[in-house]
Amino acid sequence: SSAAETRLLSTMAPPELIPQSVLFGNPDKAEPKISPDGTRYAYLSSSDKGVLNVFVVPVSGGEGKMVTNDTHRGIRMFDWALDNVHLLYKQDVGGDENFHLHAVNLSTDVVRDLTPFEGCRCDALMMSKEVPGSLLVGLNVRDKSVFDMHRVDLKEGTAVVDTENPGDVAQWIVDHEFRIRGCMATVQADGSKVLRVRDTAESEWRKIAEWPHDESGGVHRFTRDGTGLFVETSIAHGKGENSDTTRLIVMSASDGTETELIATDPRCDVDDVEFDDDDDTVEAVSFDYDRKQWKAVSPAVAKDYEVLGREIKGTMTLTSKSSDNKRWIVSDFSDVKSPRYCLYDRTTSSVSLLFLARPKLEAYTLAPMSSHIITVSDNEKMVAYLTLPPGTEPKSLPLVLVVHGGPWARDHWGWNPQAQWLANRGYAVLMVNFRASTGFGKRWLHLGDAQWGETMQQDLTDAVAWAAKEGYADASRAAIFGGSYGGYATLAGLAFTPEVYCCGVDIVGPAHLRTLLQSVPAYWAPMKKMLTLRVGDVENDDALNQKASPFYHAKKVVKPLLIAQGANDPRVKQAESDQMVQAMHSVGTKVEYVLYADEGHGFARPCNRVDFYQRAEVFLAQHCKGRVGPAEPDQTEGHSASVIDPASLK
Q: Is the pTM of this model over 0.90?
């Protein structure tokens, strides 16, 4: 049938152009979360000003009521407090990532900033059914470089220090009684990680496990009785074996030995873990090699996962559960449909649709995403995702290689608006999990250490060669596109392998690795050694820094380049893009540079997103000959973009 399908596709005309706003504007509704008592759910939707806010609606139906009033940036992170009275949300200013935690009292509509400290960031947020009126929140008030845990009283709105950070703790862990009894710390000397526990909130801390820099370790929570911890690990702890991928185990809190193996997969690391919050046991675990697969661990939920496995066709994530664990909200992210959200009732084993995030997409033809294993030039294997334009013969197409950020992150199969946008415009879209991507074991992750611009970049070059060799892509029309690390890879691609790409689009990408590491936010201090080991010691090694930083190779960037930057980006500062543009201007190479005045590390406001993608689309069409969608002036009204003249940068 695949040959017949291919023939059918080739006789079809390219599908109708999907407007940018349908893909990149605010969703109609998104991110539903069920209330602890299971009677209502909250979700994100636009206010009459077109700004994302939180709405609450009864599960039984009816009109949603807007309970927050953000007027500019839009709310993206929220949750229910466990008292059924308050709703919590985080918000920053213009993308500076100094998030404040706000609480809305749903009985009185009063909104309160729980962390009103200037220049301070709310980090970890923890809650417990045992103490529903209280929260634990990490704040860097005392010292900008570390987060002390504060206990917040929701009724009073007060925050008092619970546990002070000794300077190296990156994560705190509470027991069933909601006391801080565990922590993960990073050792600055060698980048290793240490797990410490204490028997009571007053006891001394003691180390029970450690992971060298090139091993993987993470902790979820304590067991119900507090004698063990659920840990993901790649090393043996008394028993069990060293493994390339992480295993989910129970570790003894007294001596750090492994007491039980819960789940493992030789191809990939542990992905998501779902717990029963009453007895602190594992319900299910997912693994994601080329597609996310769930595995029920507890017999109590085996039937539920069987039902959901039949009903949910895309990638499934449990987004929230009621306190009695009877009602779940699950998301279904398919490659060829709008994301949809469903309510699952465990009592009746029934799945009912709550809503589609982007119902307007139903009118358009979307492009399937297929997974492939690519063998790269040093014979390593790499998981990749290919999206081909519908209604076009999949031969000698213009190609956009979309490079993920991180770089210690990964691409997934499923709903991807960038892939849909580009495929709709006639491009083959390739996304690859190059070395240093997470999720595929420690070996693949650390093969990327100190390889920025080297083997990590070679994987991208090999990906383009694969697409051309397989006949999908016209190698003379390959573009590179990405944000953050993907922006760096774009600059590196055009500077180090200019023969591979016909143009590039860099969003908030670092150009100079030394200045990048010198200017990271203060609260990245505990991660600094890890960054140095993974990027390379560019702060002290001139040769490495000059070799890997595109800034020093501006003269080689002869192919067209579009750079987009958020003025308030705390991670990749505006100076990164400025200096690249200056360097290119000084040697006479051309660049288009767009700056968004009220954005940070990526674009949150829909008018800015649509504005950026429209500019990128025109740029790509000019150099790769794809299609251009309709102009939507009403959707970009109020955008903050300005095109910067390279000559004006001093």
A: yes
